[in-house]
Amino acid sequence: MWLFTTSGFYSIVKHRTEPDTFMIRARVRGDLENLRSLTQMEQPVVTTPDADYPFRLIVSGAQKAQVIEALGEAVDYPNFKSAVGKLQGQRAKLTAYHDVWHTMTGTEEAGARQRSEGETNSK
Predict the structure, then answer these.
(1) Dist. CA 28–CA 50, nearest whole Å
(2) What gap in Å lies between CA 67 and CA 61, rounded to an integer?
(3) Where on the phi/psi map is residue 20: left (φ > 0), alpha (ψ -120 to 50), or beta?
(4) Largest CA distance in the chain
(5) Helix 61-73 crosses helix 29-39 at what angle (to 10 degrees)?
(6) What confidence tens digit (pLDDT) does each residue in 8-35 have?
(7) What is the DSSP letter of 79?
(8) Structure confidence by residue, pLDDT tens digits, 66-104
(9) Which of 18, 72, 76, 90 is deepest in the core (most CB within 10 A)?
(10) Does domain 2-76 have CATH number 3.30.70?
């Protein structure tokens, strides 16, 4: 699972060999430090320079749920990209987030922007 948040970009995957254990991976160490602060987790950030993500936290299934809940509760903005652009520690990712947003528009269903009868705009 990829999570693009105002505290960082994370990849959460199940641990290959340890049951009920997950790896929260990041490309930027500070993103995991932000996550530790947000969730009050004490796990150390593990450095994995030869892996596809150089930093990770190893967490239990319960802690993974805590992380996802905390990140969800932290949503206090009406526009994600604008919120990221205002945060000094995350602003450097803004171009990449715009690129992902633009790429994902290519997956949109044909006719997705046409309103059906009786449908309203919920922006």
Answers:
(1) 14
(2) 10
(3) left
(4) 54
(5) 90
(6) 999 999 999 999 999 999 999 999 999 9
(7) -
(8) 999 999 999 999 999 999 999 998 999 999 999 999 999
(9) 90
(10) yes
Token code pair at residue 99: 């690129």
102-121 per-residue burial string, b: 16 or more CB within 10 A, e: under 16 = eeeeeeeeeeeeeeeeeeee
DSSP string across 16-45? SSSTTEEEEEESSHHHHHHHHHHHT--PPP
Tell me the domain boundaries of the chain.
2-76
Using only C-alpha atoms, the chain has a radius of gyration, in whole angstroms, of 17
Q: What is the pLDDT of residue 121?
A: 62
SS3 for 93?
helix
Query: What token pair was written down for 81?
Result: 């990209």
Length of the chain: 123
Q: Are 29 and 41 contacting, i.e. CB atoms less than 8 angstroms apart?
A: no
